[in-house]
Amino acid sequence: MKQLIIILLALIAMIPETQAQQQWTNTDPYYARRVTLFEMLPVGKKDIVFMGNSLTDGCEFHELLGNPHIKNRGIVGDIVQGLIERADPVIKGQPHKIFIMCGVNDISHDVSGDSIARAMERLVVMIKKGSPRTKVYVQSMLPFNNKVREWKLLKDREHVVVEGNAALEQMARRQGVTFINLYPLFVDEEGLLKKEFTNDGLHLMGPAYAVWRDAVAPYVK
Amino acid sequence: MKQLIIILLALIAMIPETQAQQQWTNTDPYYARRVTLFEMLPVGKKDIVFMGNSLTDGCEFHELLGNPHIKNRGIVGDIVQGLIERADPVIKGQPHKIFIMCGVNDISHDVSGDSIARAMERLVVMIKKGSPRTKVYVQSMLPFNNKVREWKLLKDREHVVVEGNAALEQMARRQGVTFINLYPLFVDEEGLLKKEFTNDGLHLMGPAYAVWRDAVAPYVK
Asked: Which of A62, A64, A200 sits opposite B62 (nearest CB)?
């Protein structure tokens, strides 16, 4: 009987602490390909890494900011847990700076703003532990616009972006890293992504990336 | 009657010469966004531009080749006519070198190898006219592998890649530009894209990009 209890306790100990911390698998073949590419590309001490989802993936930041040390580590569809799981090749490189933007795909998976900030905090702590000299910049989530095109999984969830950004800002303060609030630069009077910045209500046109560039340029330098 | 004939002739003269030369519109919102970004990003005389489709889009060539002058102008889904229509911002920059890879999407639109090479020739002529000092490198198309995943529009069209590459090589010789034959590096004994290079039969994993890098590195330098 004692032995059975010990075995049961051992099995319970092997269950991951929370679901959010479980291994997360993105089944998109594009995702897997980008991961294999990123595992191959070295990151160095002078580098400035942009981690994120499709919004980061969609831009040539090293060109936009005129800085050859900038490396794009965005992947379409990514969530914060995805960033955590593929952070190792970035952290090992001990880069000069890391800029992070993530969360809107988490929202489409029905994750709350607080949960997004908690996941982001795990990532920030992981970076601070693994690469203490790296300067971390947590960028706010951007608004979306379901009037341009309906994203069903984001329906009526505009408020989660606002709540998530507030929680991200608090988290950044707690962790002593910089929070960059891009949201006000992209939002219209109705709380939606400015129409002229998007052609699908979620992703950014060229001129919108210029706004992003101008906002982060002082931190990149 | 004479007037009617004149009007008819005038109308006929307004019809584009061939269908391939007609304005081509890609309706993918991603495509439109990339175009607006590329129109905004400057190209300069020291730059080395990689033009192409998803195979180019999927890689960070400036990192892979360790050259900050490399600029990626790949867009998922593009065909040669698409490259022609968005070539202006590249040509205006009078870049040092242009590497081009395109054609597999044309094949999925049922275009022949000869037609692909003719379209590519129009692009090469356009570059030579608009930027005579630019060195042009036409890269071969890569094989695909319909056993890994079936791409219905490419079914039984492996031979079109081979024919297209032969036509591209002839065209490059005729135009006095360099042809880089990547095909043999990516093909297996059955004429298919090597299984270990892909996870969907068409697009490339990280290690496959290393093969591409090694093949073009002598020309990039």
From this structure: A62
Three-state secondary structure of A142-199:
CCCCCCCCCCHHHCCCHHHHHHHHHHHHHHHHHHCCEEECCHHHHECCCCCECHHHCC
B39/A58 Cβ within 8 A: no
Q: What is the DSSP string of B198-213?
A: -SSSSS--HHHHHHHH
Spans of all domains in chain A = 29-143+152-182
Q: Is the pLDDT of residue A20 over 50?
A: no
Per the CB < 8 A criterion, the answer to whether B61 and B50 are in contact is yes
**B60·A40 Cβ contact <8 A:** no
pLDDT in tens, A164-195: 999 999 999 999 999 999 999 999 999 999 99
Chain A residues in contact with B71 by the CB 8 A cut-off are 60, 63
Q: Which residues of A touch B203 (CB under 8 A)?
A: 29-30, 33
Global pTM value: 0.90
- Option in A63, A71, A72 nearest B41 (CB): A63
Q: Decide which of 3.40.1010.10, 3.40.50.1110, 3.30.70.560, 3.10.290.10 is the CATH code for B29-143+152-182.
A: 3.40.50.1110
Q: Inter-chain contact A207–B63, Cβ cutoff 8 Å?
A: no
- Give me the residue from B40, B199, B203 closest to A207, CB to CB: B40
Residue B118 token pair = 């003719």
The total number of residues shown for chain A amounts to: 221
B207–A40 CB contact, under 8 Å: yes
pLDDT digits (tens, 9 = 90+) for B96-133: 999 999 999 999 999 999 999 999 999 999 999 999 99
pLDDT digits (tens, 9 = 90+) for A132-165: 999 999 999 999 999 999 999 999 999 999 999 9
More confident residue, B216 or B9: B216
pLDDT value at B16 more than 60: no
ipTM: 0.88
Report how far residue B60's alpha carbon sits from residue B53's, in angstroms, rounded to the nearest whole number: 14
